[in-house]
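Example 9 (inverse folding). The structure is encoded as follows.
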């Protein structure tokens, strides 16, 4: 009996769209982490799942135009008109600002967000978008929204993913986990960014502006680390596969534990080396 061949997984940030595994492309990102930008400066990572009947975008960026993303989708062999769903990992502007614009241009598409995000939008409460940092800019709430909670199944045939709520960075973070090309993959947004260059265990920026909760975040990370996916697809930076995924998760858990040592933490500034913020705060 022939042994099963290992899936081909590419986690390299290339200058053109990257086929991470069969059926999954990395089609958008800004220059976060000094990676070569694919789309607009204000974009988080954007992923394209190419299904048999339709395609799905995971996050949609926050740049001023859809054109760069549409061009990258075509480069990956896709067609923007085939995108029927946008799965949003949380409300932050760099992940969602283009959602309303996309739905206006492609009226057959819809957005999927966590039930928490949908409730904030229903109340027209924009705190979770982070737009308070940019008071001169306007945010348009996407109209065709579907809400999910942990355990809800999302399909892009032949692929099936389950929603997993990942609160902490923001209350509305949600991941999407499923098999693609035989790989246990999880889109984690900013909840799990992981090892990026010299920085170990990168996590989403904590700030009271978007209601971060360090203790809730710790429980979220510990739970995922207890059952780690084989492939982590973060909201920023490079993906993590195999042992690197487990290592990144362990480092994220360590990092949040160190942050818990800081009393009354109002905001996490991106200091380097990554342990510097703990030492600096203890001096105060």
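The amino acid assigned to each position is listed next.
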């Amino acid at each position: 009996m022939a042994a099963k061949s290992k899936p081909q997984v590419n986690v390299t940030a290339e200058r053109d769209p990257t086929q991470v595994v069969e059926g999954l492309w990395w089609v958008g990102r800004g220059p976060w982490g000094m990676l070569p930008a694919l789309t607009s400066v204000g974009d988080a990572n954007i992923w394209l799942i190419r299904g048999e009947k339709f395609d799905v975008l995971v996050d949609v960026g926050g740049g001023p135009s859809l054109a760069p993303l549409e061009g990258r989708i075509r480069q990956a062999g896709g067609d923007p008109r085939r995108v029927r769903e946008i799965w949003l990992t949380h409300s932050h502007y760099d992940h969602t600002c283009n959602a309303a614009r996309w739905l206006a241009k492609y009226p057959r598409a819809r957005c999927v967000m966590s039930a928490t995000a949908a409730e904030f939008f229903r109340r027209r409460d924009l705190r979770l978008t982070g737009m308070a940092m940019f008071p001169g800019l306007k945010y348009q709430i996407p109209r065709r929204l579907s809400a999910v909670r942990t355990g809800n199944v999302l399909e892009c045939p032949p692929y099936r993913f389950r929603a997993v709520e990942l609160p902490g960075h923001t209350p509305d973070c949600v991941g999407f986990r499923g098999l693609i090309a035989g790989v246990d993959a999880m889109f984690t947004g900013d909840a799990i960014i992981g090892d990026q260059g010299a920085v170990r265990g990168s996590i989403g920026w904590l700030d009271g502006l978007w209601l971060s909760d360090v203790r809730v975040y710790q429980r979220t990370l510990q739970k995922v680390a207890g059952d780690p996916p084989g492939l982590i697809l973060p909201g920023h930076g490079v993906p993590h596969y195999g042992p690197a995924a487990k290592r990144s998760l362990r480092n994220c858990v360590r990092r949040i534990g160190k942050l818990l040592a800081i009393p009354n933490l109002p905001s996490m500034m991106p200091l380097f080396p990554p342990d510097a913020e703990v030492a600096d705060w203890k001096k105060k």
